[in-house]
Amino acid sequence: MISARIRQLAKNEGIDILRITHADPFERYLLPHSPRQDPHRTFPKARSLIIVGIYIGGFSLPEWDKPTIGRTSHLFLSGFFCNVVEPLKFISSFLRDQRFSAVICDDFQPESSILPLKLAAVRAGVGWQGKNTLLISPDYGSFIALGGIITDASLEPDEGMEKDRCGKCRACQEACPASALDEPYRLNRERCISHLLSEESLPREAYQFMGNKVLDCEICQLVCPWNKRHLEEPLITERIRLFRKKLVTLNDLFKLSNLARLTETGYADLIGPYRTGIPYKVFRRNVIAALGHSNDHKVIPLIQSALEDSDPEIRGAATISMNFIQQSMKK
């Protein structure tokens, strides 16, 4: 049976969730003319969607709370910042061997960003879309990296959808320092810290609340009750076991003083494989901005060096950081 073989391949690749659903259009998708709204725009013969999830609850650094360590997210460290792609290639190859077509969703490549994965996962019964707009699973919280395949294979869909279990909880809304979740279930993207840290220009007010973040933000996930047990005692998977062997190296890399010394080549070599799509200059601006919150006078020479940078955004970040660090030394 094709579905059973697909599930076995997924298990072999360390995929924790696999659900199958139909390929009808997504009526709730906010961009009606996008190819993501209707799988048939990408693949006219689409019949099924294969939605997968990989648990990422254990992808964190033990010293993230230290202001001298550059903070990113579980999703970033998992290596699936732009969807689960590589583990799906075995499934797509199998489908093609069976004379079916299969197209993998890959948000890193604009032409391959073909599915609204959260909506697809809700339809497939993986979880519900929470007030922070992220997918939440009763088993894994929101610590799931998603991936998807569109295929013309007629696969038996999984039954059942998860009900919304957010209830009256407002933890994520109240925790966001940028007020990006003032309205439940709707993200104000222009205020979201994750979005701001990926933009070429960082608003001055963002410097006040970004802290030691250099890539991505997950404040709304850290306060979510569905994530509490995964933060205190993450599930142990083979991927997480392998990740933990790199903790010492990663913790050293993410010291702000080391990130500030990364050249463009070093950034491409060390951060590039994580497929964030964030340019080096934007990353460096974020690092210089975070130095101002480090409470470490030893970083002053690094900030002073950035004051001479050729990029005006980086020079501006250095000016603000210098003010922050000088104020912290007076306390």
Write up what this structure looks like.
- The protein is built from 17 helices and 6 strands.
- Helix 1 (2-12) runs antiparallel to helix 4 (89-97), helix 15 packs parallel to helix 17 and helix 16 (300-306) packs antiparallel against helix 17 (312-330).
- It folds into 2 domains: 2-151, no CATH class; 171-223 and 255-330, no CATH class.
- The chain is an alpha+beta fold and 331 residues long.
- The mean pLDDT is 94.
- The strands form 2 sheets. It has a 4-stranded antiparallel sheet, with helices on both faces.
Instruction: Please outline the major beta sheet.
Output: 4 strands, antiparallel
Specify Rg, calculated over alpha carbons: 21 Å
Cα(first) to Cα(last) distance is 68 Å
What's the helix-strand series?
HEHEHHEHEEEHHHHHHHHHHHH
What's the rounded overall pLDDT mean? 94
DSSP helix fraction? 25-40%
Return the structural class: alpha+beta
- How many distinct beta strands? 6
The amount of beta strand, in percent, is 5-15%
Segments where pLDDT lies below 50 for 5+ residues? none
What general outline do the C-alpha atoms trace?
elongated
How many domains, as an integer? 2
The DSSP helix count reads: 17
Strand order of the largest sheet: 1-2-6-3
Distinctive features:
single chain, 331 residues, alpha+beta, 2 domains, 4-stranded antiparallel β-sheet, two-stranded antiparallel ribbon, 17 helices, 6 strands
